[in-house]
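INFO  loader      accepted 1 record
INFO  loader      residues=304
INFO  predictor   begin
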Amino acid sequence: MTQQYPIGTPGKPWSSAEKKAWLSAQSKQRDYGNDVVRRIDHLRELFQVETYGELAYAEHTYPLFIVRSQPWRDDLPTALVTGGVHGYETSGVHGALYFLETEAVNHLARFNLVVAPCISPWGYETINRWNPDAIDPNRSFVVNSPAQECALLMKYLAAQNIQPDVHIDLHETTDTDNSEFRPALAARDGTTNDNWNIPDGFYLVADSQRSAPEFQRAIIEQVKPVTHIAPADEHGCLIGAPMVQEGVIEYDAQPLGLCMGMTQARFVTTTEVYPDSPNTNPVECVDAQVAAVRGALEFAGQQR
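INFO  predictor   done
INFO  writer      dumping tokens
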């Protein structure tokens, strides 16, 4: 199924004029300060909270926060949790925060924890996949990244010499992927859009270069009691990729500029929940993200 996007000319990539037109159509729909920063502030008694940069866009600036273990223990491996790479994916942001508020203390004996709850606050506020420059952060974790969101986080990790053993990146797949974001992508790039089947349920995207099947399976098993796992489509796929085991597909993360490809972590995965399913709700989606982090850390902790 193809869908015409209201900005641009079919078959012609956007110029700066079309990007400005797209940006002018965006508006604030929720508040990063109230929804995210306020909750981070409440964590300061238990964790070290650092500002690792500030996003500066035309009319807005957004401080970016890392929440990490205190004290830091050099004898422990490090686990990185990232949320809100795509700001519109709500349970990624709130799952990272809820993990910090509830489960994180249970893992401090085994791991140094580093959590970036909301990497794309402008995307969070405007419910967008892209940043204001019409750049997808989750295709921009590359050297000399064109996305401030990615460049600032990578710079911080390098400066702090943080080399995670585990990295869990929290995402969603939503109906708006087909109604808005994939048509916008095709319009921006001057290509033809073909919508994909949205998986109904939770699934994981593993890095094909570090697939770790038992690690992925342990996460799926932890999530099963919380929410349903997405079944494969009639072609044995999820979002066009072959399902390699129950609820798991694989991408080659680093060449695609995916967040899960930015470190050399031994155990890495990207979570995906489907908040638009009639079989779930927002609370369950957040709980599924927390369960995924728990499953990842419990498995990785047993491998030492």
